Amino acid sequence: MNNEFENKNINTDESNNAKRLRMLGDDSSEDIHLKSDAEVKGAFWPNFWFRYKWYVIIISAFVLIFTVFLIQSLNTKKYDVGVLYAGPTYVVDIQNDIANAFKDFAKDTNGDGEKYVLVSTNVYMNEEQQIEAANGNKYDQMALYSANIQAYKDFQQQMLAGNIIVCLMDPSLFEDYKEAFSDVSDILGYEPDSSLMYAENAINFQKTDFAKSYECFKRLPNDTLLCIMTTHQLTPDAAREVSIDLFKAVVNFEA
After folding, report:
1. What pLDDT is attached to residue 6?
2. What is the torsional sign of CA 205, 248, 253, 110?
3. pTM for the structure as a whole
4. Which residues, in sequence order, are bridge partners of residue 84?
5. Is the pLDDT of residue 200 over 90?
6. DSSP string, 160-210
7. CB 200 within 8 A of CB 124
């Protein structure tokens, strides 16, 4: 009997303890809840990325593009005159040297106290130049052919824009668009030396004293032509005047 009573007391005590633990909170149950919360928090970012990753990527891309555009807009200078090079030579590394050479003969048209020449480049190769550059590699030749098509389109767009009208260019491009360039004698007001002339509206650039006086122009092919586009309605009057003055100064330059 005593044993039975003791067992009942033990069971009763354990039951009361259990009740108190439930009322006061048990460490083990707290651990379970904490673990559950951690799992939920840990799963938030993977779930968020899974559901919204393209929104994040697209928004981030727009933010990046806007930031780059803003920085470029703040840092972009207003140029006084532009020169377009369209030919087979990569001149990006000497672009500033070419700009500085022309700058000596340019005018400050926007009144900011500086003369800034924009040199726009367009790498264009005729068929013979493509074959030579590919050096027998058919994949390189295919790549050059594809790039050349795009370069040709870019050249057309630059002509239509009418912002840059002084051109250094490959003869093959000139032959395709020679009607788009002004007669040299009309621009200069006199007949230049015949040794300089490639056609009535194109000068052999490398034969000019100007080209011979600057190291950077030695990188350009010997058959590079200097031309000036006939302007159209989209060409600002100021751009036409300053471009004609630059063209005259280059051709009339004497070493």
Report:
1. 47
2. negative
3. 0.67
4. 120, 167
5. yes
6. HH-S--EEEE-HHHHHHHGGGB--HHHHHSS---GGGEEETTEEEGGGSHH
7. no
